[in-house]
Every structure is written in structure tokens, then in C-alpha cells.
């Protein structure tokens, strides 16, 4: 009876451990899935905004160019002469209208537009716009534009873009430009559209592609983690089974020879206490870890911290050399991912913080920045030539921008044993100009064209995620300034231009 009781307890204990380990593996999988989903979502909305801007800029460029080609006087004559709805039922009814139609059709075809482009005029009598010219096969002359966006009327004189608006025909992205006569008077608007559903369809295709790429990267990584932790948990189960078996043997022997020796009884009690203590500690540890994983799965930083903790445990318990190599690679990947998240958070903070204009002690700030960036660099020298000791701007944004440029110089120094970073400041008109130059490897012409774009690396030596100079540009835009990468025979040269804010 004793043996049967102990065996049942053994099975329950082993089942409990396996159940806890299974929960941990599930929590780990959920953490990885949440992390992948987060980055896919961020990438999707970033790409969506970028694509929308590209579409709107393209439509704006088309309408601006095309509006200059249209004869404003002829357009004015047509709209003044034919005042009734459907007064023109074919393009051939009026020679000027036929010319206008052919121009619009040529522009549509040349730019591969899927929807017709058209001209409209504002009719004050009924406070709405009327359609005049079109690239369509049949005119819809003087039909009313019933639910037109208010920006058409607000920006009648200058033109503009219409970002995601609805009318009776659906949802659109549009741009429009004024048509002027020889006197410079606005006699109509030229509008070009793209259906929002087509635009969204392209975004969904991009999301699918990125999702497949992310899965292709994360599946091997997840399989590796699963394999590592499965081995660790299996070893843990084997150790626990061994302890339970030892306990069972000792208790069985104790029942058989309990009258023989008090020493054996004492040893048995000590062993039982040790087993219970280790089991309790293990259950407590497992519960705490599971609770941590559950609550932290809702936070972007938490999955990264969880993976780092589990990686540390696997490193301590693993004795296989090939596994150690994989764990080292995992550690490097986690560090890079953590740095990436922090960088993205910095970008978000920069874009959302309130700009605070204050007096900045320029020399003190630059020296502090250089000391922070170059603390692990040797044979590097900073040279300052400042026309003013103090300027007024946002201290955090300025220091962040200068720090990223100096880090860029230190990274691309071509192993120069005598790297020199020169910082000069001068005032030109109403601007403070800060120039930062170095004698490193410099910037190629091809790289300079996309230097300040997101996720663009200027050199194969780059170890970052391509956001350094994008952060610089974002900081300066928030301060109302700009940055230029100047031509330089040796090294790199950046010029920062900031409003004086006197």
C-alpha cells in the first residue's frame, strides 16, 4: 500500500512539473508572436503613410504640370458660353472643348492613371462646383459636384491635396491645381484622383509580403528557442524523477526496517524535507516566471526582457558547444532588437514632445555630448570654433541631433588613428549655422541621395538600423531647421541650420 501511494504521488509530481513547463513554453510562444505582430503592424502603418504621401505628391505633380498646359482663356470661354447642364453632349460640339478633352486624355494615358481626370469651375449661384472638361469618352458637362471637399474652395487660388475623402462615388485620394487665364485669374481647377480601395489593396499586398518575410525569420528562431528550452525542461524533469524515485526507495526501506536504525529514519526525514523544499522553490519560481510572462506580454519591452532572461538560464545549463554558439547569436540578436525598439521609441518621443525654446550653453553641451559618445574611442580629438557661446533652441533636440552626427563620425572613421571632429558655429542673417566635419571615410554620392531616409545605412560597416541621420533630420525639423550633407574632399561634412530665436 505504501509503494502504491508513493507511486501515485510520483506521477502527480511529474505531471505537475510537465504542466508548468508546458505553460512556460506557451507563454514564450505568445511573447514571440506578440513581438512579431507588433513589428508587422508598425511596418504596415509606416508603409501605408509613406505610400499615401507618394501617391498624393505624384497626383499633385501631375495636376500642377497639366494645369500649365491648359489654355485658361479657352476654358473660360467654354464655361461662360455653355451654361446649362449637358449643353455639350459630345467632345466634337466645340473645337476648344475637343482640344481640352484630347489634352486631358493624353495626360491621363501618359501618367497611367486608372480614373479620369477632369476640370471643374465654382458656380457661385448654387454654391457648388460644376464639371467642365474630362478625359472620359463622354462629357458630363455642367453636372454638379454635390459633395465636394471644402478644401477645393478654400485652396481655389493655390491648389492642394485631398487626403482620404468620401463622395457619392466612394473614397479617394486627390490633388488639384488652378487653371489660369492670361490675366493670371483662376478660371477653374484641374483634379486627378486615385481610388482609395486600389491604394489599400496595394498596402494589403505589402503587409502579406512583410508577414511572410517575418515568419520566415522568426520560425527558425522560435524553433531554436523551443528546442533549447525543451532540452532544459526535459533535464529538469529527469532530475525531479530521480529525486522522487530516491524518495520512494528510502520511504519503502524505512517502512521495512524502521525498527532497525534511527539514523536511517533521520536521513529519510532530511531527504524528504530537501525534496519538498526544492519542489516548493521550483514551483514558486515557475509560477513567478509564468506570471511575469503573462503580464509582460502586453508590453513591447516585456517580450525582449523575457527572452533575455530565458537565454541567460539556457546559457548556464547548456554544456553543448554548438548550442552555446547559437545562444551567442541569439544574445546578439536580442541586443540588436532591444536597441532597435529603444531607437524607435526615441523617434516617437522626438516626434511627439513639445518643443521648448531655452538658452543652451553651446560649448558645454557639445563637450558633454562628445564625452558621452567617445568614451570608448581612442586617438580622437574634438576641435571647437564657436562664434556664440549661447543660442536659443530646444536643448534636448539639439543635443540628440549633434550626438547622432558625432556617433556617425566615430563609427565611420576608417580606423583613422588621428580622427578629428571639428565643430564650428556662426550666424548668417537670421540663422545659426553649426557645421560638423571629420576626416573619416566620407560619404559616397549614391549614399548622399538617401542619407536621411529611414532604415538607410550609408556603409556596409554600419551596425545600426539606419535611423541615426533620420533622427537628426527629425530633430531639426521639429526645431524649424534643416541639415545638409556637404561635398567634402576628405571625410564627412554636415551643416545644421537653425532659426536664431532672438
Using the CA coordinates, give the radius of gyration: 35 Å
In percent terms, what proportion of residues is strand?
A: 15-25%
The structure class reads: alpha+beta
Which residues sit in consecutive blocks of at least 5 with pLDDT less than 50? 286-298
Mean pLDDT: 80
User: How many domains, as an integer?
Assistant: 3
Q: What fraction, in percent, of the residue positions are helical?
A: 55-70%
* Count of DSSP H/I helices: 12
The N- to C-terminal Cα distance equals 93 Å
What is the global morphology? flat
**Count of individual beta strands:** 13
Largest sheet: 6 strands, antiparallel
Q: Sketch the topology as an H/E string, one letter per element.
A: HHHEEEHEEEHHHHEHEEHEEHHEE
**In order across it, which strands form the biggest sheet?**
3-2-1-6-5-4
Amino acid at each position: 500500500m505504501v509503494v502504491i501511494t508513493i507511486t501515485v504521488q510520483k506521477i502527480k509530481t511529474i505531471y505537475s512539473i510537465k504542466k508548468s513547463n508546458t505553460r512556460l513554453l506557451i507563454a514564450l510562444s505568445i511573447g514571440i508572436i506578440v513581438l512579431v505582430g507588433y513589428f508587422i503592424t508598425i511596418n504596415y502603418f509606416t508603409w501605408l503613410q509613406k505610400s499615401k504621401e507618394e501617391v498624393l505628391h505624384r497626383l499633385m505633380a501631375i495636376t500642377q504640370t497639366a494645369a500649365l498646359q491648359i489654355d485658361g482663356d479657352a476654358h473660360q470661354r467654354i464655361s461662360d458660353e455653355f451654361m446649362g447642364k449637358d449643353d455639350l453632349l459630345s467632345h466634337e460640339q466645340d473645337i476648344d472643348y475637343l482640344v481640352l478633352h484630347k489634352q486631358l486624355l493624353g495626360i491621363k494615358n501618359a501618367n497611367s492613371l486608372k480614373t479620369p481626370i477632369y476640370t471643374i469651375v465654382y458656380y457661385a449661384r448654387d454654391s457648388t462646383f460644376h464639371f467642365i472638361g474630362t478625359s472620359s469618352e463622354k462629357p458630363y458637362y455642367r453636372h454638379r459636384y454635390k459633395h465636394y471637399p471644402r478644401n477645393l474652395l478654400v485652396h481655389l487660388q493655390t491648389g492642394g491635396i485631398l487626403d482620404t475623402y468620401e463622395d457619392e462615388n466612394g473614397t479617394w485620394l486627390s490633388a488639384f491645381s488652378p487653371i489660369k487665364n492670361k490675366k493670371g485669374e483662376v478660371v477653374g481647377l484641374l483634379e486627378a484622383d486615385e481610388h482609395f480601395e486600389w491604394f489599400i489593396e496595394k498596402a494589403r499586398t505589402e503587409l502579406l509580403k512583410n508577414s511572410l518575410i517575418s515568419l520566415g525569420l522568426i520560425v527558425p528562431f522560435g524553433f531554436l528557442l523551443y528546442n533549447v528550452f525543451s532540452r532544459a525542461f526535459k533535464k529538469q524533469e529527469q532530475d525531479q524523477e530521480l529525486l522522487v524515485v530516491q524518495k520512494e526507495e528510502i520511504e519503502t526501506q524505512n517502512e521495512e526496517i524502521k525498527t532497525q536504525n534511527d539514523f536511517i529514519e533521520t536521513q529519510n526525514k532530511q531527504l524528504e524535507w530537501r525534496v519538498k523544499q526544492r519542489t516548493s522553490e521550483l514551483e514558486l519560481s515557475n509560477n513567478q516566471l509564468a506570471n511575469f510572462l503573462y503580464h509582460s506580454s502586453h508590453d513591447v519591452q516585456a517580450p525582449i526582457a523575457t527572452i533575455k532572461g530565458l537565454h541567460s538560464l539556457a546559457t548556464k545549463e547548456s554544456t553543448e558547444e554548438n548550442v552555446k554558439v547559437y545562444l551567442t547569436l541569439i544574445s546578439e540578436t536580442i541586443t540588436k532588437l532591444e536597441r532597435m525598439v529603444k531607437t524607435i521609441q526615441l523617434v516617437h518621443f522626438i516626434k511627439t514632445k513639445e518643443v521648448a525654446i531655452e538658452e543652451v550653453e553651446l560649448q558645454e553641451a557639445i563637450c558633454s555630448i562628445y564625452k558621452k559618445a567617445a568614451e570608448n574611442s581612442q586617438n580622437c580629438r574634438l576641435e571647437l570654433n564657436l562664434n556664440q557661446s549661447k543660442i536659443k533652441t530646444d536643448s534636448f533636440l539639439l543635443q540628440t541631433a549633434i550626438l547622432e552626427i558625432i556617433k556617425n563620425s566615430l563609427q565611420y572613421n576608417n580606423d583613422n588613428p588621428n580622427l578629428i571632429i571639428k565643430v564650428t558655429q556662426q550666424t548668417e542673417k537670421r540663422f545659426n549655422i553649426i557645421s560638423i566635419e571629420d576626416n573619416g571615410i566620407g560619404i559616397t554620392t549614391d549614399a548622399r541621395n538617401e542619407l536621411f531616409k529611414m532604415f538607410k545605412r550609408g556603409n556596409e560597416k554600419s551596425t545600426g538600423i539606419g535611423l541615426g541621420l533620420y533622427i537628426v533630420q527629425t530633430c531639426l525639423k521639429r526645431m524649424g531647421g534643416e541639415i545638409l550633407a556637404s561635398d567634402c574632399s576628405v571625410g564627412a561634412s554636415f551643416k545644421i541650420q537653425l532659426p536664431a530665436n532672438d
